[in-house]
Amino acid sequence: MEVNECISFIMLNDLQVLLEKRSEQKETDPGLITIPGGHIEYGETQVEALFRELNEELNVVPTDYKYLCSLYHPTKELQLIHYFIVSAWTGDITAQEADEVKWYSLNVNQVGIAADSIALKEVERVSRYL
């Protein structure tokens, strides 16, 4: 069984999280509201992928980030998503690949994939330790 490793970034601003509405043209999870992220490239570390994907997806550079958890996401491929909390960054957030990015309440129930929903619940569960 091939597992494709991915990175997702939970951008936090007080009690809000930045989510994206994926383009309908995306092969994976088209049109869904998700935590932004992307595939880890061959030879890349998780942190290198985090920096690259944040630049590609949102045009920002993280200055404060922490690993949260890893969860499987079965879609057209089996993904293992490594979630990072990003609480500070430089640059102005702009949607580079998604149709839209928007701040939502942390207890949002609108995310379209189960792994993202679990990751957001984990943020709430352990937030006092982060």
Report what the structure shows.
By secondary structure, this protein is an alpha+beta fold. The chain has one domain (3-129): Alpha-Beta Complex (Nucleoside Triphosphate Pyrophosphohydrolase). The chain is built from 2 helices and 7 strands; from the N terminus they run ββββαβββα. The protein has helices spanning 46-58, 114-126, and strands at 3-13, 16-21, 33-34, 37-39, 61-74, 78-90, 100-105. A hairpin with a 2-residue loop joins β1 and β2.
Relevant terms:
130 residues; alpha+beta; Nucleoside Triphosphate Pyrophosphohydrolase; NUDIX_hydrolase_dom; metal-binding
Distance between the termini: 34 Å
- The H-level CATH homologous superfamily, spelled out, is Nucleoside Triphosphate Pyrophosphohydrolase
Number of domains: 1
Q: Main β-sheet, in a few words?
A: 7 strands, mixed
Number of strands: 7
* CATH topology description: Nucleoside Triphosphate Pyrophosphohydrolase
Strand content: 35-45%
Shape: globular
> How many alpha or pi helices?
2
Order of helices and strands: EEEEHEEEH
Helix/strand-derived category reads alpha+beta
